[in-house]
TrEMBL record:
Binding site residues for pyridoxal 5'-phosphate: 76-77, 102, 154, 175, 198, 240-241
Protein's job: Catalyzes the reversible conversion of 3-phosphohydroxypyruvate to phosphoserine and of 3-hydroxy-2-oxo-4-phosphonooxybutanoate to phosphohydroxythreonine.
Gene that encodes it: serC
Membership in a protein family: Belongs to the class-V pyridoxal-phosphate-dependent aminotransferase family. SerC subfamily.
Main localization category: cytoplasm
Name the record gives this protein: Phosphoserine aminotransferase
Manner of cofactor binding, per the entry note: Binds 1 pyridoxal phosphate per subunit.
Amino acid sequence: MSKVYNFCAGPAMLPAPVLAKAQQELLDWQGLGTSVMEVSHRGKHFIELADKSEHDLRKLLNIPSNYKVLFMHGGGRGQFAAVPLNITKAGDKASFVDTGVWSKKAIEEAQRFIDTDVVASSYQDEQGLWHVPQQQVVEVADDSKYLHFCPNETIEGLEFNFCPQASNGAPVIADMSSTILSRPINVADYGIIYAGAQKNIGPSGLAVSIVRDDLVGYARQQTPAILNYQLTDEFDSMYNTPPTYSWYLAGLVFEWLLEQGGVAAMAQRNQAKAGILYDYIDQSEFYRSQVAADSRSWMNVPFQLANDDLNAAFLAQAEQAGLRALKGHRIVGGMRASIYNAMPEQGVVALVDFMKEFERTQA
Ligand code: PLP
């Protein structure tokens, strides 16, 4: 089979060497003669795996010791509910930056439990280009309990390259589902960072939550046990049976990232990959990006063909060339290339070569 590059937005974009290692270990993990899926999560071997994965993630993101690292169920959306259920009371209010689809879904879920204020939004300039709000400090009500934002909007391809702060000093909560581990961050800027695993961490189902310890211990009485940060911490993320195979794969991804030189090395690669694609789009009359330069995602690159009538031919020929899943989300239309950590630069180069050739043959 000729080389295939998968530009799918998710679920689960895993680096090829990680999948190869998982395949090799599938039937016999650590010489136990069984798959990792079949061993007890309470047994020594799995507990070692869990400890090492936490240790590696702490190293990768330089997580301070006053933050808990929790491996949870329910993906990103589970955390949309977990945050208000763990750190607010009924009748409380929190502030939200609305930059697109995933911000809105987080707001909708939070509205079940608290009052929500949208305090900043993405905007289109005179050229029709989309920006994320650039305020470093976002004005919020004095009694707002937290400021929530989505550093990378997976569908619109909008990314923050800074962490906004709340004017009242309330904790900042970030949905990093589609950007975590793509670049260094200063964890201390955040109260809670959470991510559905399925872009840069591992398979879907798992969520990682990094929670400052002064925010643990305030869950509402009604909070489901599996969303409760304190219980999750007390049970070492094993209050009930954890998604062990996803956790195992996440651990392999963390090892792979450390071998690559960590998130600083990934940031260089990711910036270079995104640059190759945006540079080509920008100099072309045939393709265009609707995202302003200050807000372009390194992970999800939506782009349009100047002539929408060519979309079907573009997608069909791209598939034939081994370039998969480039169709844009229906809300945005056009194309979207998701180029998470697992996408090698050769994949982006192959895409740009294909785009050039398509442009040449259609022009
Ligand atoms: N947040 C963002 C930014 C996402 O991209 C996604 C899914 O793609 C989610 C949240 C929802 O994650 P899940 O499907 O794991 O609930």
